[in-house]
């Protein structure tokens, strides 16, 4: 998934129905979608976002700050 993918405009968090932000792939880290409001990260597996509530992972506050810096514009 790329930052300019039109799918990003319609994807929403399954919990609060708000927009998600793309976390670009980096060395050793796979791409993911992130909800900064709830501090939840959803994996992208083989190019497919995993947006079931049970697929989301709660992110601790210290990692949240790091992820905000990693988010694609």
In short:
The chain is of the alpha+beta class. It contains 1 helix and 5 strands. Strands 1, 2, 3, 4 and 5 form a 5-stranded antiparallel beta sheet that branches.
How are the SSEs ordered, and which strands pair?
Layout: E1 21-23, E2 32-35, E3 40-45, E4 48-49, E5 57-58, H1 61-70
Antiparallel strand pairs: 1-2, 2-3, 3-4, 3-5
Q: Which structural class do you get from the secondary structure elements? A: alpha+beta
Q: Runs with pLDDT <50, length 5+?
A: none
Roughly what percent helix? 10-25%
Task: Give the biggest beta sheet.
Answer: 5 strands, antiparallel
Oligomer: single chain
Terminal Cα separation, in Å?
14 Å
Beta-strand percentage range: 15-25%
Shape designation: globular
What's the helix count? 1
Structure description:
There is one protein chain. By secondary structure, the chain is α+β, with helices and mostly antiparallel strands. The chain has one helix and five strands. It has one helix at residues 61-70; strands spanning 21-23, 32-35, 40-45, 48-49, 57-58. Strands 1, 2, 3, 4 and 5 form a five-stranded antiparallel β-sheet that branches. A hairpin with a 2-residue loop joins strand 3 (40-45) and strand 4 (48-49). The longest helix is centred in the last third of the chain and has 10 residues, at 61-70. It starts with 20 loop residues before the first strand and ends with a helix. The model has no long low-confidence stretch (mean pLDDT 88).
What distinguishing features does this structure have?
73 residues, 5 strands, 14% helix, 1 helix, alpha+beta, five-stranded antiparallel beta sheet
């Amino acid at each position: 998934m790329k930052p300019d993918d039109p799918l990003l405009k319609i994807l929403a968090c399954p919990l609060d129905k708000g927009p998600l932000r793309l976390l670009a792939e980096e060395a050793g880290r796979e791409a993911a979608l992130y909800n900064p409001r709830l501090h939840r990260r959803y994996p992208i597996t083989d190019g497919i976002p995993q947006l079931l509530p049970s697929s989301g992972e709660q992110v601790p506050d210290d990692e949240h700050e790091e992820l905000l810096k990693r988010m694609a514009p």
